[in-house]
Design brief:
It is a single chain. Helices cover 40% and strands 23% of the residues. The chain is of the alpha/beta class. The protein folds into two domains: 195 residues, Spore Coat Polysaccharide Biosynthesis Protein SpsA, Chain A; 51 residues, no CATH class. Strands 1, 2, 3, 4, 5, 6, 7, 8, 9 and 10 form a ten-stranded mixed β-sheet that branches. β1, α1 and β2 form a beta-alpha-beta unit. α1 packs parallel to α2 and α8 runs antiparallel to α9. The two termini are 34 Å apart. 34% of the residues are buried.
């Protein structure tokens, strides 16, 4: 299917996130750029999310809701949404994320003015942490420091072609960006704070930190096929940046 020109397809997996979902939706409706569609995939969870979304579905045809009969995991859920996406541009959002009013308009102007196929912006967290956007990232820089906020990314499929997100227990977004960069694509940063993400308390627990480290090692060795020596070098740098930036949260 040929993507619809200028349409932004927003990918949102829904997983027990009933309360913050309304705030996310309101931030989308407030966007100054109106040519978008939101594809929500409920991964077989029975919470209040559907009840919250139903009034919006009736009023706004840009919203698409997909119910899964069984739990597929977040990586497959995102790919189901990607498969239904009709837009030239792909953006990403979780139910606990919000965008500033001019996010889409500013970022798309940034991309079209410079013919960029992959862009991201700065963002803030609910704990007050500010993450700035670096001017440009390539594979070598991103492989040790995933400084790209998932909720800020926009990808132009005219530049990248259709893509899927690789299966991974965690760090799926990081791996996706790396796979795109293997095609020679660079990621360009618009250094404005244009989004807010919920910095969950679980990310500060030792269990989460250990799981993140194991996942990152798996990305180097299994997903990217790097040697043990190169994986070790990158992993040491990854740990350094993780501690420096977020206290070992990826």
């Amino acid at each position: 299917m040929n993507p619809i020109k200028d349409l932004v397809s927003i990918i949102m997996p829904v997983h027990t996130a009933s309360s913050p979902l309304k705030r996310s939706l309101e931030s989308l409706f407030a966007q100054t750029y109106k040519d978008w569609e939101l594809i929500m995939v409920n991964d077989a969870f029975s919470d209040e999310s559907k009840a919250i979304i139903e009034p919006y579905l009736e009023k706004d045809k840009r919203l698409k809701w997909i119910d899964m009969k069984q739990n597929n995991g977040i990586e497959k859920t995102r790919n189901i949404a990607l498969d239904r996406a009709r837009g030239q541009y792909i953006a990403f959002m979780d139910p606990s994320d919000t965008w500033d009013t001019g996010k889409l308009e500013k970022q798309l102007k940034f991309m079209t003015a410079n013919a960029y196929g992959f862009s991201f912006t700065g963002y803030r967290t609910t704990k007050g942490r500010i993450v700035k956007a670096l001017p440009v990232l390539n594979t070598k820089e991103l492989i040790v420091n995933n400084s790209i906020g998932y909720l800020t990314v926009i990808i132009d499929r005219r530049s990248t072609g259709d893509f899927v997100m690789p299966e991974a227990k965690s760090g799926q977004d990081h791996l996706t960006w790396l796979m795109l960069m293997k095609q020679g694509i660079k990621a360009y940063g618009l250094n404005e704070i244009l989004a807010t993400t919920n910095e969950e308390n679980v990310k500060s627990t030792p269990t989460y930190k250990l799981r993140s480290a194991r996942s990152q090692w798996e990305i180097y060795r299994c997903k990217l096929g790097l040697s043990f020596i190169m994986s070790s070098i990158y992993f040491i740098q990854y740990v350094y940046h993780s501690i420096k930036n977020t206290g070992f949260n990826s």
